[in-house]
Amino acid sequence: MKGPLFYAKILLFGEYGIIKDSKGLAIPYNFFKGALKTSNNLSDTAKKSNENLLKYYNYLSDTDNNIVHFRLDELKRDIQNGMYFDSSIPQGYGVGSSGALVAAIYDKYADDKITVLENLTRDKLLKLKGIFGMMESFFHGKSSGLDPLNSYLSLPILINSKDNLEPTGIPSQKEGKGAVFLLDSEQIGETEPMVSLFMNKMKNEGFRKMINEDFAKYTDACIDDFLHGNAKSLFGNVKQLSKVVLANFKPMIPKAFHKLWQHGIDSNAYYLKLCGSGGGGYILGFTPDYAKAQEILKNYKLELVYRF
């Protein structure tokens, strides 16, 4: 890949909660990446990407916005010359495939862009998030702008609330037994229907209470534990979060994984949670003993994300 690389992201904690203004923690995931490239001889995949970029150009041209100015003539010319997004980030997997593309387009074609090298004040982060939310809405209906923000800055981001974001440091990885991993459901998930489902559930008072109390409490505790390197406490809180998600977000968990999810909770060998909006794609796993979890989950594809 030529051009600047833009990485996948993983929302470690905060899926759905961040829609309702609770905390979240997103980290870049360098295993998957994408870059803008140009070729005179496009493969079928590259041709499809090139056609989608033209649709995206039309969307950006028709979007009346005062927050960002793009060099649209240059973008159109590059698309006509065979530009496409060369990406290893799987689509519909909850790891930010459209976010990386949005970040790449902003990086290359926006005038007066905010860069990672300057002092990233809260106002600048919120402005970037707003720009990226508008840009990514083409792909998902409504977007928070967090995925592109994470991909663009390539920094872990702590979401305190909608209007309060900050780049954060995460503890360096250790050569311990514990791990965060991705489990491949081998199904494509679609964000829009899952978010609609969540919004409908939010009309129910009991569900709202669960989100505001149990879900937010355990999410906040997990973030706190993770950032401070409290692994033992983290696993206890992730277990509780895993229980809450299984009890209340069943439609977002592919049916084939309900038993596996419960087995993790019962055995304490691993704890599963949603990665992104769910419905397919990756499922996030946390385990105090990765070798043991690998043995139990040997029939599934796992990707290592982080070691404790």
In short:
The chain has 10 helices and 9 strands. The protein is of the alpha+beta class.
What can you see in these coordinates?
By secondary structure, the chain is an alpha+beta fold. The chain is built from ten helices and nine strands. It has helices at residues 44-62, 72-80, 97-109, 122-140, 146-153, 191-201, 205-227, 231-248, 258-267, 290-296; strands spanning 6-13, 24-38, 83-87, 157-161, 164-167, 179-184, 271-274, 282-287, 302-307. The strands form two sheets. Strands 1, 2, 3, 4 and 5 form a five-stranded antiparallel sheet that branches. It has a four-stranded antiparallel sheet with strand order 7-8-6-9. The chain is globular and about 55 Å long. The two termini are 31 Å apart. The relative contact order is 0.16. The mean pLDDT is 91.
Helix content: 40-55%
Q: How far apart lie the N and C ends?
A: 31 Å
Number of DSSP E strands: 9
Radius of gyration: 19 Å
Structural classification: alpha+beta
Task: Return the string of H and E elements.
Answer: EEHHEHHHEEEHHHHEEHE
Shape: globular
Q: Kindly estimate the percentage of residues that lie in beta strands according to DSSP.
A: 15-25%
Number of helices: 10
Overall mean pLDDT: 91
Q: Please outline the major beta sheet.
A: 5 strands, antiparallel
Q: Runs with pLDDT <50, length 5+?
A: none
